[in-house]
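A protein record pairs a chain with a discrete description of its three-dimensional fold. The following entry can be read in just this way:
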Amino acid sequence: MKRISSYFLLACMALVCHAQDIDKEAALQEVEVKGASVVNKADGRLYYPTEQQKAASATGYEILQRLALPNILVNEVTHTVSAFNNKGEVQLRINDIMASRSDMMALNPQTIIRIDFIDSPGVRYGEGVAYVINIVTRRSDSGYTLGTNLSQALTAAKGDYSVFGKWNKGKGELSLDYDFGYQDLKGGRTAETACYTLTDGSLYTISRSDVATRTRSIGNSVQLKYNLADSAAYVFQVALDAGLTNAPGNYSQKAIADGVANYTATQRSQSQALLPSLDLYYHRQLTARQTLTINAVGTFIGTSSDYSYDEGTPYQYAVEGQTCSLMGEVIYENRLRPFTLSAGVNQRLKYTRNEYTGDAMSLNTMHNSTLYAFTQAKGRVGSLGYVAGVGVNSLRYRQQTHAYNFQWFRPKVALAYDLTNAWHLNYAFEYSNHVSQIAMISDAMIRNNSMEWTRGNPDLHPNRMTEHTLRLSFDNSRWYSHIECLYRGHPRPNMVAYERTADNRFIQTQRNQKAIDFLYLSAYARCWLVPEKLMVMGSGGMNRCMNFGDDYTHCLTSWDGTVSATAYLGHFTLSAYVTSGWRFMEGEGIGRSNASSSLWAAYRHKNWQFALTWLNPFVSNSLQNESELCSRYITKKVDIHSRDFANYLTLSVAWRFDKGRKYREIDREKRQKDTETGIMK
């Protein structure tokens, strides 16, 4: 695969160099144009889906899959969107409001005007956001929409079902969405071999192999939303969400062998969670050029879980957790003639209380507050487009006797220079910070197996990150391609550290250590081989991960490649996707998402769409994930296979009925939500 990816990378670079022979069409303005499907801008690109792509899609996830966005991995089976290069979070938005899974499932692709793909998000989007995908739609003035999207696996006990309704009358819109999902999977198998260096210098090797597993979960969510809008004056929205999840009686039976004894150990877990939230949003057009946005969100998360494992000696603990969050934001924007100026402030307050009982006795109460202010300018001078901004962040944290008060600046600049109508050069620089998960700054300690524990570090501090991205791209009505270089540097990052006690307990924690550097070179190409009928995409990349711990240096070079093709044949749509997966190293751990492939076929007739997804065809036992540990105290290799997701066949049925054909555009801003419980797992 490494050699194939190398050839593919060189081939894509050669295609970019020769792409000027393809017919040129000028389309540089950030407005809807009929002659180009991709429009370059300073912080990303605008995509205009074709009528064929919209007609072949039943949900927001499917339209993103059809577009084949660079470095974006869309899983139509699990309904998730992630960054292929492990760069960071992918934010999904509809009309600039953060979109939930329900929103994406209920989205009508026929109402899409354009998709704003932001691969260099400005300072207003906060920390840790690698990509923003904003789907801009039209809204019905009157009428209603009813629909359902049912997805059922034919080869495993897994299903997702959603129903939705939307009623419009004048300026008001009322919508109700309900989602139900379940799974009961028994084909997962984890095989692990670990070698521990004991205090006396001897080696202790143990293998843990699943002989039986069961993973069950049931999820329900409902969303009620009312929107009152006048596109020329204001938008007011109230959204109430409630989610209830239950994972009852999951377990795995493991065959344990250490060269002395052979026995079976059982790991059991169960959990429940209640997640209500209330979102209030107001957007006001102050003048023809000035807008004001106010957003307030309240979130509660109630969790209850139990865990037990009897490897070596029995071990059991339970967690009762409550998390309360309040988030408020005010954004002002002024569209001046030379540029658009925006400024805002964001305040987040969070209280977490997690009580561990049993063998992991601990009570964690944490108070977190973040005050973030930013200002940003976006504009164009001749052939140069730019986005420049700076954020100021104040983070406060308190947990019993542990506390810190941390402030930092976050400057960011994105430049886009049009070399010609078709050739574009982009550069982005960002200086930001990373804050560890709440769970890892707790003072709890839990046991993973007979030899290993995980312990939080309340003295863990945020760390800084510097990122540079340089991209050369070419595009016209049929072709888009680019070559890109990304460099990221982390001084004093939060890195996993392993400690060994005198009684041979091996403890995983986190510490601020020396540095992590990351280099990613990639090439991407997307082309309509037959206009409006056959689209192909290919990408390839090289990762170089450099990790400098307090007492080690670990480096890794890896390659990845992806190819896809989609054919639009009247009422039928056919799609194929193959990826090599990727390997990534952080600290002393190597993770790998393995190769996968999928075939997708859909038939659309009037208000109905029937689709079959075949994941990992002709594979009897799919390798889902591999990981390695290279610590001086522990070396470990873990493989995760699944018979459930091998030859995995899913049938999806979508039905939608619309009444009311008069549409208009409406601008909305972002919606926030908190989902982090702070519970250690």
Observations:
- Residues 2-18 form the longest helix (17 residues).
